[in-house]
């Protein structure tokens, strides 16, 4: 499956979601991307997103 390039607007939105403590799954839904794609871009941008599964402790 071909990867869609990320736009500047999507980068900014991901930063906002990370700042508001959104989960990985929430960010994927909002941006219309897979959780893996969100995880890769978050790492590239130096952001931290928690998975819903990780929050259930």
Molecular structure report:
- There is one protein chain.
- With 57 residues, the protein is mainly α.
- The protein has 4 helices and no strands.
- Helix 2 packs across helix 3 (35-45).
- The longest helix has 12 residues, at 8-19.
Name the descriptors.
4 helices; 57 residues; mainly alpha
Instruction: Count every helix, treating DSSP H or I runs of 4 or more residues as helices.
Output: 4
Which series of helices and strands comes N to C?
HHHH
What is the percentage of strand-forming residues?
under 5%
Contiguous uncertain segments of 5+ residues? none
Give me the Rg, rounded.
Answer: 11 Å
Structural class: mainly alpha
Mean pLDDT, as a whole number?
Answer: 90
The separation of the N and C termini measures 34 Å
Q: How helical, in percent, are the residues? A: 55-70%
